[in-house]
Amino acid sequence: CGLAESLGISSDALRVLIEASCVQLETERDAFITSSLEEVGTGRQQLGIESRHSALSDMQHAENFATAAASAAIYLNDHKATLLMDFDQFAMFSVDLVSRLILDIMAQIVDSGLAASPAFITAVAIGVPFAFRDGDMVHRLRNLRVEMRLVSGRKKEETDREVERLALQQEGHDAIVLVSSDMDFCSLLRELSRRGQYVAIVHDARQESQHERMLALYAHSAWRLREVCPVVEERHPRDRHNLVLQQQRRQQQQ
User: Fold this and answer.
1) Average pLDDT rounded to a whole number, residues 228-254
2) 195-229: b or e for each residue (b if 16 or more CB lie within 10 Å)?
3) pLDDT for the residue numbered 174
């Protein structure tokens, strides 16, 4: 009511404006993902996100309201997240796989309510120079609006220290999403949680292992990387047994 009064409109009118703006946010999210997928040369169906034809249809009728309601919607739904990626672990991944992984993680963040849309996610990739040796990788990360932080040394410890420094610099109540399987970050997760920061971790630890339990102990949310982005398992099976099982499934399907 106070917001409606400050805007000089009725509560019912404000409700209509907010609903229209929510449609716009959904459409912007679809547009972001679609344009990124076109860049990596994949299809929208490969990402596993259904197109929102109804939202696009509603948007045509609501575009006059959406612009006027943008400030109100942002006021009510301005969740932001900082995505910190320990990029050394992706040094052997292809450019397309890294792009897919980043998009899937961003979709997970939005779907979990940690960010209003991909536009509200600040993504940073931290790693040694070797991790950014591929010019195509650097170009793709720039297209995805991912900031790159190169550490001066060649040791992974330098990457860990830079990740910790960036994480501890975050202030406010925005969420921090850490992409790493390094148990050395357990103390960082504990400190961030102690400060009242919402922390999520995307890891590649084995399911139900002590490694996984330790990473999830101090995080509010723990997501398995191979569940967030199943393509990782398809292209980089955890072990040969999984690869054999995949080959058997393909033969059965044929």
Assistant:
1) 68
2) eebbbbbbbbbeeeeebbeebbebbbbbbbbbebb
3) 82
Cut 0.90: pTM above it? no
Residue 141 has pLDDT above 90, yes or no: yes
SS3 225: helix
Pair 114, 177: CB distance under 8 Å: yes
Query: Which residue is associated with the tokens 């900031």?
Result: 147
Beta strands in the chain (DSSP E): 81-86, 121-127, 146-150, 175-179, 199-203, 221-224
The Cα 247–Cα 249 span in angstroms is 5
Q: Where do we find the tokens 């696009």?
A: 56
pLDDT at 5 over 80: no
Exposure letters 67-79 (e unless 16+ CB within 10 A, then b): eebeebbeeebeb
Query: Two tokens at 62?
Result: 């609501």
Give the residue from 141, 142, 49 showing the smallest Cα distance to 99: 141
